[in-house]
UniProtKB/TrEMBL annotation:
Taxonomic superkingdom: Bacteria
TM regions (residue ranges): 6-25, 32-53, 98-116
Pfam families: DUF2784
Entry protein name: DUF2784 domain-containing protein
Organism, as annotated: Imperialibacter roseus
Entries under InterPro entries matching the protein: DUF2784
Keyword set, alphabetical order: Membrane, Transmembrane, Transmembrane helix
Length: 130
């Protein structure tokens, strides 16, 4: 069961990160994308008050499972873990953290861009109709 949870959390967490980055693209997922952004920001900043800036409950739960499976020397960052596993490298923690924060900012900025683009299109339609 622990092995299944490990695989599940790896897949779910990876999908969640990708959704934070690119969930703004399909119009149908933009509201869910905003929720994902809000949850991420809340965890990183508000839970971060108690657990450290950038805290992620998914990583915390996942690492508990990995430790029970005998895995040691886990990094604080899921992003670093996935990058290191995928490349066989030992990436610099600070660089990975910078790219991770930049990814969140990218998701936020693009969500804002799409929001204001949609509003602009709606105003142009109203001008044409009215």
């Amino acid at each position: 069961m622990l092995q299944f949870l490990d695989y599940f959390l790896t897949g779910f967490h990876t999908a969640f990160v990708l959704f934070v980055l690119f969930g703004w693209i399909p119009e149908a997922t933009r509201k869910a994308h905003l929720i994902a952004l809000a949850l991420t920001i809340a965890a990183w900043l508000f839970l971060g008050i108690w657990y450290g800036l950038g805290y992620c409950p998914l990583t915390d739960w996942h690492w508990d499972i990995k430790k029970e499976l005998g895995e040691k020397h886990l990094p604080n960052s899921f992003t670093k873990y996935i990058f290191d596993q995928a490349t066989g490298l030992n990436a610099n923690k600070r660089i990975v953290d910078i790219f991770t924060a930049a990814g969140l900012m990218f998701g936020i900025v693009m969500a804002g861009v799409k929001f204001f683009q949609k509003r602009k299109v709606e105003r142009l339609k109203q001008k044409r109709e009215g």
